[in-house]
Write a structure and sequence with these properties.
By secondary structure, the chain is mainly alpha-helical. A two-stranded antiparallel sheet has the order 1-2. The longest helix has 28 residues. It comes from Mameliella alba. Keywords: DNA-binding, Transcription, Transcription regulation. This is GntR family transcriptional regulator.
Amino acid sequence: MEHTDNKARQAADPYSRIVAEIRKGSIRPGDRLIETELAAKYGVSRTPVREAVHRLEADGLVTHVPRSGLVVRQLDYAEITELYAMRAVLEGTAARFAARSVSEVEMAELATINEEMRDADQIGAAYEANAQFHRVVLNAARNRFLIRAVEAVQKTLLILGRSTLAEDTRFEKAVAEHEAILQALRARDEDGAERLMRDHIEAALQVRLRQYRREVTE
């Protein structure tokens, strides 16, 4: 059993590392994923890399392109808009449900996370705090099917690369938006929590679309 668990962890490692590189922008949309190169880069055999690539393909993060092989997917303007629209619906619903069932412990955790995000001196730390804030809200919704749907959307978001928090004043605004959401949760304001979360996602979309337009023109 221990041998099987170790093998599973080793097979999963390249997947996690590729996902992390996509998220950081080290591997970008349109980049080819070549098994031999990835195996050499990560110091593993081709088998776990092949399994990792198959998982990425199942997740919709990579696709087959004629004469190029497997490449990281590129989302166009319409797909980005559609993706964020779905995110707004799902996470808005999560905030509504959370307003009904969030515990005092979870509200305290959300406040702490947002303070850590406000005090973060690196974008990586801010990104992790932001992701954790959204995870706690989602878990507080107490709906396993909603959690699965949000996680599927979040995987696709990885293709977009670097966080919108790195843009202009988005970081400071996101912290303030989180605080407003937290206040709505404390007040058990279901309508307010959903509206504020949707507004929060819409604000992130506008920054993301500016990123996209800039990258297209470069």
